[in-house]
Here is the input.
Amino acid sequence: MREIRDILRLFEAHRAEPLALATLVTARGSSYRRPGARMLICADGTTAGSLSGGCLEEEVARRGLEILRGAPPELLSFDTRLRFGCNGSIDIFVERLRDDFLPQLAENFSERRICRALTIFAGEDLGTHLVRSDTPVPAGAFAHEIEPAIRLVIFGEGPDSAPLRAFGEILGWEIFEIDEPGNLADRVDNRTAAIVKSHNYGRDFAALCVLLKLELPYVGLLGPRKRRDQLLNAVLDEGITLDAELFAPAGLDLGAETPEELALALVSEIQAVFARASAESLRDRKAPIHGWNIASRRVRAEVNECATSAP
Here is the structure.
C-alpha cells in the first residue's frame, strides 16, 4: 500500500502534467515483484513505485519518457534469467496515463473502497482504467483489485509505540492512537487492525469490550496468557460475543525483548494476517514464494494472455 500512496502523492505534485504509468502485467517463474506492481513516471524523470529490485526501473522510465514525447504505448518483456538474477520473465506495459485514472483511484483510496483496475495491454482500447468488480477480463488484459491501506489502531502509550508508528509509516499504513474506545466510531473497517497495550487492566478491558464486538481481522493484546484469560472471562461475563479475531499474546515469535523488536513482531504478525500468509521461514516453504494463486488470498490478480508482442 505504500506504493499506491507514493504514486498518489507524486500525482498530486504533478497533477497538471502528462504522466506515464508502467504496470507489471504478467510474470512467469520467479520475479521480485508480482503482477499489479506499478511505477508512475513524470516528464522531469521523477518516479514513484517499483517494478523489480531496482534493476530495470531506469530502462522502463526511459521508455516512459519516450511515450510522453509521443511514442505509442508498449509492452516490454524482460527475461530475468539472463539479466537480473531471477528465474523467470515478466511483461511490463508502459502507457501515457489517462486523465481520470489516478483521480478516481485517489478518491477510492481516500474513501477506503476496494476498486478494480483493468490494464489492457494488447488489442484495442489500450490503457488502464477503473472498472466494476464484475467486469469480465478480456484477452490481453490484466485486472487487479486495489485495497485501501491497512489501518492500525493503537490503545495505550508505551516505549513500543514509536517503533510501531515508524514501521507503519514505512509500510504505508494509517496509524491512529486512541485513548478512549468510544472514539472508534468511524475508524474501523475490514482493513483495520487493533493493538491493546495500555498495561492497565481496566482500560484494556474497556477497549476489548468494544473491539471484540467488531468483525476485525486482527485484535492484538499484549501481556501473558493468564492475564488474557482473566480479561476474556470478564468480557464474556458481560455477554459480549467475540466477533473479532483475537491474537493474544500478540506478535510472532521473533525472540523479541526490546520495544523495537516487539514492534517488529507485532507488525509482522499483522502483515501475515492481512496477506493470508503463513509467516513460516521461506527456506522451509515447499510452495512458490509468492503463492499468488492460493484461493484464500484476498487480493487476487487476473490475467488473460494473448500474443506478447506489443501492438
The chain has two domains: 2-148+298-304, 151-274. The CA atoms of residues 122 and 140 lie 5 Å apart. Confidence is low (pLDDT under 50) at residues 292-311. The two ends are 31 Å apart (CA to CA).
